[in-house]
Amino acid sequence: MNKVVSGATEAIRDIPDGATLMLGGFGLCGIPENTIAALVQRNITGLTCISNNAGVDDFGLGLLLQKRQIKKMISSYVGENAEFERQLLSGELEVDLVPQGTLATRIHMRALGIPAFFTPAGVGTEVAEGKEERTFNGKRYLMEYALPADFAIVKAWKGDTMGNLVFRKATRNFSQAMAKAGDITIAEVEELVEPGMIDADDIHVPGVYVHRIFQGSGYEKRIEKKTVKLRES
Asked: What Gene Ontology terms describe what this protein does at the molecular function level (predicted)?
């Protein structure tokens, strides 16, 4: 089945206001730049965004925050975005901060079809408020639910027209699980090839999970924090 669409605009054609989105990437690494730009241009509002982080002020999900398109963020680390902080403290943005391992597992459990699981992360903290707690072998655990999403949006290094995806290095973070967890999965890729041109052993996400795919362009691939070492004289 050919799952290719013409670009990001067509890929998000039916995302409504109020949708819940999973957005892959880690920091600014491996984020779906083209699709985020299309969401900004279409001005879809009331979004719930599930993402490890909120980008920076002028890039990534920070662009959606600037235009007040995000109603709620479900994230782990958000310390690089001053606008996110402002909206949170002013009460404009609803935020659910989740321990990073718990966030990854909640997404993975959704991909596996498992509705809930128990984890020791957050026991005895604000994270535990309102959650069921059980003791196993003398240790306390919280019950966490799998995270549903109407759409999962990821960016891969390479894909084929059937939706098979290959990621490079750290860009796999969150994206691999998210691609399997969304009700509809949209993938943008740097290189789009014909079926059979990706070795089966190299596939990270089988095409059965992907509903739409397109070849992106103009990637900035920004470095979130650049650290350099001065040359020795």
From this structure: CoA-transferase activity
